[in-house]
Design goal:
It is a single chain. With 104 residues, the protein is mainly α. It has one domain. The chain is 58% helix and 0% strand. The chain has five helices and no strands. Helix 2 packs antiparallel against helix 3 and helix 2 runs parallel beside helix 4. The longest helix is centred in the C-terminal third of the chain and has 20 residues. The N and C termini lie far apart (49 Å).
Length: 104
């Protein structure tokens, strides 16, 4: 109905109480409204959730945002590598390892 801005405003989750799923849903709404960069920024503070890392990659696939996504997931993947080197296998960035380009 041409009231995208109003709809997005109503759908935005409340900051202190919102859960990952709510941010994901809101980010998807932004992406579908042609506001992909805003959608990425909405998810960025919540990327300690492996599930949201996957959602970010899926949402941006084929949208010419690979460089930005790699900027976001690389520190998570590096944190996982460092944790694993210390014998810690559970780390919020574990999923991020799957999104980095693999060597030859």
């Amino acid at each position: 109905m041409g009231r995208v801005k109003e709809a997005l405003s109503l759908a935005r989750p409340d900051e202190p109480v919102a859960e990952g799923r709510q941010w994901r849903d809101y980010a998807l709404m932004l992406a579908r409204a042609g506001r992909l960069d805003e959608a990425i920024e909405v998810l960025t503070p919540h990327l300690d959730d492996c599930w949201l890392q996957s959602n970010l990659v899926e949402m941006t696939e084929g949208q010419d945002r690979d460089e930005r996504v790699l900027e976001l997931v690389t520190p998570l993947a590096e944190g996982t590598r460092q944790a694993r080197a210390k014998g810690k296998w559970h780390h919020p960035g574990a999923q991020a390892l799957n999104f980095q380009p693999q060597g030859p």
